[in-house]
Amino acid sequence: MTRSLRLVASEHAFGPIARWREPDVTPADITDLDQHATYANWVEDAGFDALFYTDFLGFDPVKQLNPRLPFDPTTLVSALVARTRHLGFITTASTTFGTPFHQARTLASLDRLSGGRVAWNVVTSFTGEGNFGLRELPAPTERYARAQEFLDVVDALWASYPESAVVDDKAGGRYVDVSRVQAIDHVGECFSVSGPLDKPGPAQRPVLVQAGSSPEGIAFAARNADVVFVAVPDFEQALDYAGRLRAEVAATGRAPDEVLIMPGFRTFLGRDAADARRVRSRHVTPDALEKARRVVLRESEHFQLTDLPLDEPIPPSHLPTDEQLAAAAGRRSRAQIYLNWAREPGVTLREVLERIALEHGHFALTASPRAVADELERWFLAGAADGFMIGYGSGIAQFADQVMPLLAERGLWKPPTDHDLRSRLGLPERI
Ligand SMILES: Cc1cc2nc3c(=O)[nH]c(=O)nc-3n(C[C@H](O)[C@H](O)[C@H](O)COP(=O)(O)O)c2cc1C
């Protein structure tokens, strides 16, 4: 086995944010840089390839009943690269609300400051329009078209100021050969950017991560991404997604295995299946179910679950139709997963809300460490996943202590040794 499973830890998986309801955690801990650095150091020592930070550009009155990251993630990452040695970081930035010039500078800076350890999770955003002068979120097709132009401009800006322009001509008084720094003069549908960048581009193209699973999302990922995150709740859907993505990657002329597929994954671990179910049930609190009733509205306003009894099936009239779902502006793929769960024969509202609250549409296992390792092995060997992005579940520390050694024993995973994230993930160079 030459390939190795890649493992990314989620920001939510550990540390004071995950543990906020425990009596010893205070609000001061949540905003304490040392605590975030402790988590990053733990993630590094546990052998994860990278630590991932999401970003949603707006206050969410339901989700924020739980603490969220109290920092802009890219700002936090710039502090954490100084407190870690080899760990990769994946930060998130929006192409719908940001501008390519700023993003090209920020990422080039972080690439240099970290020695190639920072990746960009490219998102088109599904909330935040009111903060950027928009009355409505643009439709997904429009957002993806803008995202492509955004990336093209970022690439052009990075190339506009190459490393080779620095000639360091001390005698002639020319640090930079300005003739090698070229304007880009981009005029497109969404952006007009003259360039060049006023800072040198990154030493190599930073790793790009993407997480769209609609047809437009897959096409965008196939063309641009090095890594895809995806919410796929089961093996069949993961395999189907992997097949579609790899076909699209090949159609763009790239090698199909050049894009790493990393489904979100969380686990509730116990000694055996019954014990794991007990562990999981401790995470099902009444307030978590009530939040889940409201949180699905973010995906589609046609999930009308608020006044329904918990222990009965959901009447179809309280769920979106396929047409309503297709027309939703938000995360259609996530809404589709919730809808599929709600339509399972005989399923009660309580069961659906539990899954939404604990799994968020991701792959989740409630099982013993050995059974978890078996299932991850199955996904990996079948090509349904190249790795996993590990979320909270019953705790990422148990995953690291109990599952990662089993994966290592089977030769599926070994601790990474490379410094820059591209090599750490075994990705080819890209220019
Ligand atoms: C693991 C994972 C992490 C994501 N992180 C973010 C994020 O930080 N910010 C964001 O706006 N969207 C995030 N998304 C949403 C995706 O960027 C995308 O909007 C979503 O998957 C729907 O895309 P689609 O309409 O192409 O299916 C994430 C999705 C997944 C699966």
UniProtKB/TrEMBL annotation:
Binding site for FMN: 55, 92, 144, 213-214
Organism taxonomic ancestry: Bacteria, Bacillati, Actinomycetota, Actinomycetes, Mycobacteriales
Family: Belongs to the NtaA/SnaA/DszA monooxygenase family.
Keyword terms, alphabetized: Flavoprotein, FMN, Monooxygenase, Oxidoreductase
Protein name: Nitrilotriacetate monooxygenase
Record organism: Mycolicibacterium parafortuitum
Luciferase-like domain boundaries: 29-384
Record has Ion transport as a keyword: no
Keyword Lyase: no
GO MF term (any one): oxidoreductase activity, acting on paired donors, with incorporation or reduction of molecular oxygen
InterPro entries membership: Diverse_substr_monoxygenases, Luciferase-like_dom, Luciferase-like_sf, NTA_MOA
